[in-house]
Write a structure and sequence with these properties.
This protein is 64% helix and 1% strand. It contains 19 helices and 2 strands. It has helices spanning 2-8, 11-31, 43-54, 64-67, 70-85, 87-97, 104-114, 122-148, 154-169, 188-202, 205-215, 224-248, 258-270, 287-299, 312-326, 341-368, 376-394, 409-424, 426-431, and strands at residues 333-334, 337-338. α11 crosses α12 and α14 packs parallel to α17 (376-394).
């Protein structure tokens, strides 16, 4: 029986089941009366909130600060901390600290989650990941506490600081404030601290490890992976901020100070990359800005991080593939290295599977939305809102144009599935359904494309 279960539970299935189990347990706890601040929370809303927290998405059908009690809020904090690092990572580190052996399945899951190439010192890296995580979250809590202490009592200020620091580093976006961070739109400390936490949590733990190792002299050069991540991340932040300012300077940024314009532009460029905090009302943005946010949400964070999306490396490799094809080159080179063809094939599959998933879920939301009785011109806005909601869920972002609380039960289930697929990966979810088998190799025959 043990051998049968071990064979049945492949690393992909084990990874998926672990996340699904934590989501279900969290939903049950949030469903209990002591998790609600007032009236009893129905199970579908508890399941939605738990899935959003574990998948570090940030979409919510509840007001975390008023609908959940302190116990319920602490439960969500624990859920997105576990969801950001992964339940398997917690288990492996615990076994390592206890001196117990780590299974091959645990090694494979951790290395595929956080490392671009297998390493023998992965347990050292794992412990380093945990230590750095809590150091960064503690530093973020300290700076946020300095600001929140001006508005709240010391104990409440510390709690708000801790909740938002952990939420930001894990790229979750859940907040105890009903308007998230709109009230702190022009506050430098809040904006800079939250942005720093989001970026550090979104670049990936192995990139953090390599940067620190190089800075301390333990490593001579950064890997190609880290270089691509850092360059792509910086480019997306600067480009996103520039486009946001360009499209909103005569609209939502028109009557605010230069400082607020700069903070808002950069904040809304950083946060769509899987964080979900906002300092402006998303529903008031122009159509070009909405398109930019959708693109940033779809790209997401970097591999081995707490964020979602197709990842910055996938986006960068896609651009490199297109550029090399235009130059007539078969191989893709970066920093004097050739990217393996297997990685390029996987990149294309990830992008296609992600786009297909977004299209499918958006269609389901439209079909379940009950907009068929409305004239086309009156219901046109639902398409943009549902598309934005779907990409936000799939990219584990948490931004919304304000329709999340109005979703029907069927739509909520579709968004839950989307958040889950975005967290574990659409290919991982697909591969978990079957065991790979070696097939026959046939003679090749060409097909016209393009």
């Amino acid at each position: 029986m043990k051998r049968f279960i071990s064979k049945l539970l492949s690393p992909q299935r084990f990874f998926i089941i672990s996340f699904a189990s934590v989501i279900f347990i969290g939903a049950v706890i949030l469903w209990l009366p002591y998790s609600a601040a007032g009236s009893h929370i129905n199970f579908i809303d508890a399941l939605f909130t738990s899935a959003s927290a574990v998948c570090v998405t940030g979409l919510t059908v509840l007001d975390i600060g008023t609908d959940l009690s302190l116990n319920g809020q602490i439960v969500t904090l624990c859920l997105f901390q576990i969801g950001g690092l992964g339940i398997i990572t917690f288990s492996v580190v615990l076994f390592g600290l206890m001196g117990r052996g780590i299974s091959f399945k645990g090694r494979e899951i951790f290395q595929s989650t956080f490392l671009h190439t297998p390493r023998r010192d992965f347990l050292v890296i794992m412990k380093w990941v945990f230590g750095l995580t809590f150091i960064i979250e503690a530093a973020g809590t300290f700076f946020l506490f300095l600001r929140f202490s001006q508005d709240f009592s010391p104990l409440r200020a510390f709690y708000h600081a801790l909740y938002h620091a952990v939420s930001a580093f894990n790229n979750c976006g859940l907040s105890v404030f009903p308007d998230k961070l709109v009230r702190y739109q022009n506050d430098i400390i809040i904006n800079v601290t939250i942005m720093a936490l989001i970026i550090l949590g979104g670049i990936g733990f192995i990139v953090q490890y390599e940067v620190v190792s190089k800075w301390r002299g333990y490593q001579q050069r950064l890997s190609v992976h880290s270089r691509i991540v850092l360059l792509t991340t910086a480019s997306l932040i600067l480009g996103g901020a520039a486009f946001f300012y360009l499209f909103e300077m005569n609209h939502i940024l028109k009557d605010v100070s230069i400082k607020t314009q700069i903070l808002t532009s950069f904040f809304q460029s950083v946060t769509p990359r899987t964080a979900g905090f906002n300092t402006i009302h998303i529903g008031l943005l122009t159509n070009p800005t909405i398109l930019v946010l959708i693109m940033l949400m779809f790209i997401g964070a970097s591999p081995g991080s707490t964020g979602g999306g197709i990842k910055t490396t996938s986006f960068a490799l896609l651009l490199l593939m297109i550029w090399n094809r235009l130059k007539g080159q078969e191989q893709v080179n970066a920093y004097d290295r050739t990217i393996p063809g297997e990685i390029l094939t996987r990149t294309i599959a990830i992008i296609f599977a992600s786009a297909f998933s977004v299209t499918l879920i958006t269609s389901i939301l439209l079909l379940l939305g009950g907009t068929g009785n409305l004239p086309p011109l009156e219901s046109r806005h639902f398409f943009v809102e549902y598309l934005f909601e779907t990409v936000s869920a799939f990219g584990n972002v948490g931004l919304s144009m304000g329709i999340t609380p109005t979703l029907s039960v069927g739509q909520k289930l579709a968004i839950i599935l989307t958040m889950f697929a975005g967290r574990v990966g659409p290919l991982t979810l697909a591969f978990s359904w079957y065991s790979p088998k070696r097939g026959l190799t046939y003679a090749e025959e060409s097909v016209m494309v393009g």
